[in-house]
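Per reviewer request, we include the raw input and output of the structure prediction for the construct analysed in the revised manuscript.
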Amino acid sequence: MPVQLATPLRLVGCVCLALLLWAGVPAHGDGAVFGLDCLPGRPLNFGYLNAIRSGQPASREIPQLNYHAIDAVILGFVEPRTNASLNLNLGAFATYAPLLVTHSHRHRKACLMSLGGGFSADPNPFSVIAARADLRARFASNILHSMIQMGFDGVDIDYEFPRTDTQREEFTLLMRDLHARIKASNSNYIVMFGASPGFYINRYDWFRLREYSDFAFYFGYDWKNPANGPMTQPGSLQFLSGGSEVIEASCRGALRHIISSGYPPSKILMGIPFYSSANRSWLGIRDTWLSRRQQFLTAMHPDFRESLHEGEWWNTPDTIPHKLAAVLDRSRSVLGGRNTLRGVGIWEFGHESAKDPDLSQAIGNWMDARYCDPASPVPPVRIHLVANQSFRLHFPDTNGCSYVVEASRDLEQWEPVFESRSHRAVFEYQAPLTNRAAFHRVRRN
């Protein structure tokens, strides 16, 4: 959508400034470019990527991921070693990382590295590292070094899971030391961790962890009781790992436990699985869903907010909005006290095709319908020349919408301004002296 400059320089249909042109500043090496300050005020959506299952090569799939529907991408996994070093060659991490960081930043989205995951190791490296102050310090430094070298905007700790009172305390110390080291480098970096679906949910010191994390990613899946991630399940019971505490055997039960234990809902993201209770990817059922969409919708369980098909429970584009409303819509929240979460997240992009992103788009559509007013005008843009031929484009974030700044040399071919520094609604990038002529416009994303 075209805008006009809030300066005497105007051009009908686009923003024009002869001295302003598209050229990216370095994205790496000087801290988080797309960190906390770039996250919108509306509810968030973080998307994991672990394994591409569509059969397409990463070079084709990663550039086409549904970046519009998410606010940050989390790449898993880095393997922690018991000596506090990092194995960056676990799975496809090293292959995906440069592509994912580049394309996330091109879309002005944060990109985080995740450590851990569901790999099997005895002893669990996290428990060994967390038990010693020297290993915690080395671990935090190694993480920060890798983040800077690879261009990541934050870190996610996926320790599955602290299982004893001692590990509970030591995990808190690990997050304390990691948070302090990362934030000392750049407070804009994102520091978060993943949490058990239910059984081990009491093995986190939630009250203290709120000081050492920006977000907690609650695993709203793998219940399999029988649904994959039942939103509610009235009358059901889940004993926690200590043997005495009991919660409702559902996402609601676990989330209420987290909140009542002192962790603010404004820092919680609830994960939504893009695979079934039988661990089958959405890719395997999509065509069937398309041909039987009404049947799937009719089969949605009113408490689980998932659809049953041939013995498997699925999240579909029609059930996902019901889960979002249950944790993000104050008037429909199931969390009690009109609590709502900071957002949701997806596990994972690899379970849907980038060509047909039905599930992630269902989340994006729900967000857009509630937090972006398409009738509101694009706000005015102010352009400033600052030091070293660097220019800043300012426009207020007034209506919950997101925008793309694009550049052109001929008013016909437009490209997004890639690798620009972004601070909320401020874009900054370098203009080389050898090529000054360019046109710019802002359009709604």
